[in-house]
Amino acid sequence: MSGRADSDTPLKTRVEPADAPQDADADEEASAVGTAEDTETDGTAEDEDGTAGEEDVGADEREARRARWVAVCTGVVLALAGLAAALLRLAGSAPLLVPVAYAGGAGGCALAAVLGSRGRTRRALWLLVAGLMVMALGDQFD
């Protein structure tokens, strides 16, 4: 839940009774003042039927595509770096826990790349963070 109020709530909340006398001057004044409030929007372009315009849908789609690409590319780069570090530590004189931690972190980053390609960018971000923390923890044992 985002905590935002609904944007389609009416601005005018006072209901006039049907049998109340109509004042012509008050109606003109209210319509002149109310037009600025009634036409206020939250910055999105809307059509006559109240739906968002095509440019907003395209912008959201571009942002989602960019987030997927960032998650995939970051996951692949970190997975390759973790795998290279695991192989280097395995060839050296480090304890066995160190290359295992690097390989485990690299596996987490590779899984994050897969999740990012499927559109699960938030989960991919947290999995990238967890993979890096596992690699950093493995580095502490060296």
Write up this protein:
- The longest helix has 38 residues, at 54-91.
- The chain contains four helices and no strands.
- By secondary structure, it is mainly alpha-helical.
- It has helices at 24-38, 54-91, 97-117, 121-140.
- It has a domain at 57-140.
Report the total helices: 4
Major β-sheet profile = none
Helix content: 55-70%
Structural class: mainly alpha
Taking the alpha carbons of the first and last residues, their distance comes to: 43 Å
- The radius of gyration computed from the alpha-carbon positions, rounded to a whole number of angstroms, is 28 Å
Q: Unreliable stretches, pLDDT < 50, 5 or more residues?
A: 30-41
Identify the overall geometry. elongated
The secondary-structure element order is HHHH
Q: Please, what is the average pLDDT?
A: 77
Please indicate the percent range of residues in DSSP E strands (runs of 2 or more): under 5%
Tally of strands:
0
How would the blueprint of this fold be written?
Blueprint: H1 24-38, H2 54-91, H3 97-117, H4 121-140
Helix pairs in contact: 2-3, 2-4, 3-4
Briefly say what this structure is.
The chain is mainly α. The chain is built from four helices and no strands.
Any key phrases for this structure?
single chain; 142 residues; mainly alpha; 66% helix; 0% strand
